[in-house]
Amino acid sequence: MHRRTFILSTAALAIPGLSAAYPAETFTPAIWRSLRETDQTVVMNFRAAWSLTCQIKADLIAEALAENPAYTNLTFLNVDWDTFGPSQMTQRLKVERRSTLLVMKNGEEVTRLVNEPHARKVRALLDAALAA
């Protein structure tokens, strides 16, 4: 394990509040196939459990959901980067790194946010998802 990865993952465990949860399904190919065929707006969160940036984004999503109940109309799907990062799906969706939020509707990309752990950017992405 790289020293930076170890330090960041240790910090994520030590900082209180970084484990806030939001209602999300765990990605499986079957779930993705069924969601892709609906008109639901899906927020795909490509994340790794050991990534501090991913933990911060999860907290920001949870905070946004608590502040704006309209965001609960979105479907959240957590994609484990360690499992699906090197997959054909991520290549087709052009997801090149963890800490990517990707909004999809009817199988088409609406917007994305890559490695931007800032509340205003996460809210802007969620607002765009609602408008889709």
| Extended strand count | 5
Q: If helices are DSSP runs of H or I spanning 4 or more residues, what is the number of helices?
A: 6
Low-confidence stretches: 4-19
Strand content is 15-25%
Largest sheet: 5 strands, mixed
Short note summarizing the structure:
This protein is an alpha/beta fold and 132 residues long.
How are the secondary structure elements laid out?
Blueprint: H1 3-14, E1 25-26, H2 29-36, E2 41-47, H3 52-67, E3 75-80, H4 81-84, H5 88-93, E4 100-105, E5 108-114, H6 119-131
Parallel strand pairs: 1-3, 2-3
Antiparallel strand pairs: 2-4, 4-5
Commentary on this structure:
Strands 1-3-2-4-5 form a 5-stranded mixed beta sheet, with helices on both faces. A hairpin with a 2-residue loop joins strand 4 (100-105) and strand 5. The protein has helices spanning 3-14, 29-36, 52-67, 81-84, 88-93, 119-131, and strands spanning 25-26, 41-47, 75-80, 100-105, 108-114. 45% of the residues lie in helices and 21% in strands. It is α/β, with parallel strands linked by helices and 132 residues long. It has 6 helices and 5 strands, in the order αβαβαβααββα. The model is unreliable at 4-19 (pLDDT under 50).
